[in-house]
Design goal:
Layout lengths: L1 E6 L2 E4 L4 E9 L7 E6 L6 E6 L6 E3 L7 E6 L4 E6 L8 E10 L4 E5 L3 E6 L1
Parallel strand pairs: 2-11
Antiparallel strand pairs: 1-3, 3-8, 4-5, 4-9, 5-6, 7-8, 9-10, 9-11
Length: 120
Amino acid sequence: QVQLVESGGGLVQQGGSLRLSCVASGRTKTTYAMGWFRQAPGKEREIVAAISWSARITYYADSVKGRFIISRDNAKNTVWLQMNSLKPEDTAVYYCAADLYGNYTGANYWGQGTQVTVSS
C-alpha cells in the first residue's frame, strides 16, 4: 500500500502560480510512475501530468504544456507540480496518483485531493 498526501492548493488570480506537493509513504520502494490528475465540477477526472520513476519520461496534457512542470525526488518520496500562468479553466480538485496504468488513464493509489481555484 502507498499513502499519498497532497498540499499546496489554494486561491490564486489568473496568471499566477502555485506549487503542489505530494508526499508518499508506505511501499515507496516500488518503482512507481506518478502523476497528477484533476477533476472540475461536472467534468470527468483527467490526467494533467505524469513522470516515470527515473524522471526521464514526462507526460503533459495538451492543455497544460508549457505552463506546468512535474518533478520528483525519490529520496524525499515527493512529487511536485509547478503550475504557472494559471487560467480559470485550471480550477479543479487536483489529485496525486501513484502506480499509473492504462496509458495514464488510471492509478492504483490516490491522494485525497487539494483544491485549486483560479479567479479571473
